[in-house]
């Protein structure tokens, strides 16, 4: 396992993909800061050309609770895309770059290779989440947002972390699709389908029963009047996560690599 982890970490370190994902989360944090800046003084934002002269943003306040909630919502929505990209790259690259046979020829169990990839994916997504939280806290401090308290910050960061953990679990079927489909495109297809159906099912009011809608509901993206996902939603996310890992490991263990 140590050798497999070292190999996967080396692949990630020599790739540009980690920098691309970090840039995506940096831009997302900057967008959150921009919204807070606009909400602080909409007349100032109009004079700077940030919003149209007749545009008006209502229903939100430029304060720490809103800012921290926005970070959670970024994690729920953008996390499926960015965390999914991590899984697609880690598993799909072996087939797209024709390195899977060389990898399986090593004296390392196939299950160990799969688990090492999932561990690296988890660590990678953890670093991205920490980056988002740190940038969010720095931006909120620079803007001088009101309503700060240690309890609020701890609650907000915990919500971001829980949302990220659920989102990471929901990317394991994407890893299975990239493996069984032997490349990037099947994984990307499953990822886009998950994002699409999560929006549709949530709009119909059944999001708490559809695992890919649960992180968004948990983060409060649907608004204060929406029903929380509850214990059932969290259990469904856990089942999907564990099932995705098991399915991927079984496929790698039993599939014939004939090309």
UniProtKB/TrEMBL annotation:
<dbReference type="Pfam" id="PF12730">
    <property type="entry name" value="ABC2_membrane_4"/>
</dbReference>
<feature type="transmembrane region" description="Helical">
    <location>
        <begin position="230"/>
        <end position="252"/>
    </location>
</feature>
<keyword id="KW-1133">Transmembrane helix</keyword>
<feature type="transmembrane region" description="Helical">
    <location>
        <begin position="152"/>
        <end position="176"/>
    </location>
</feature>
<protein>
    <submittedName>
        <fullName>ABC transporter permease</fullName>
    </submittedName>
</protein>
<feature type="transmembrane region" description="Helical">
    <location>
        <begin position="70"/>
        <end position="92"/>
    </location>
</feature>
<keyword id="KW-0812">Transmembrane</keyword>
<feature type="transmembrane region" description="Helical">
    <location>
        <begin position="20"/>
        <end position="39"/>
    </location>
</feature>
<feature type="transmembrane region" description="Helical">
    <location>
        <begin position="188"/>
        <end position="210"/>
    </location>
</feature>
<feature type="transmembrane region" description="Helical">
    <location>
        <begin position="113"/>
        <end position="140"/>
    </location>
</feature>
<keyword id="KW-0472">Membrane</keyword>
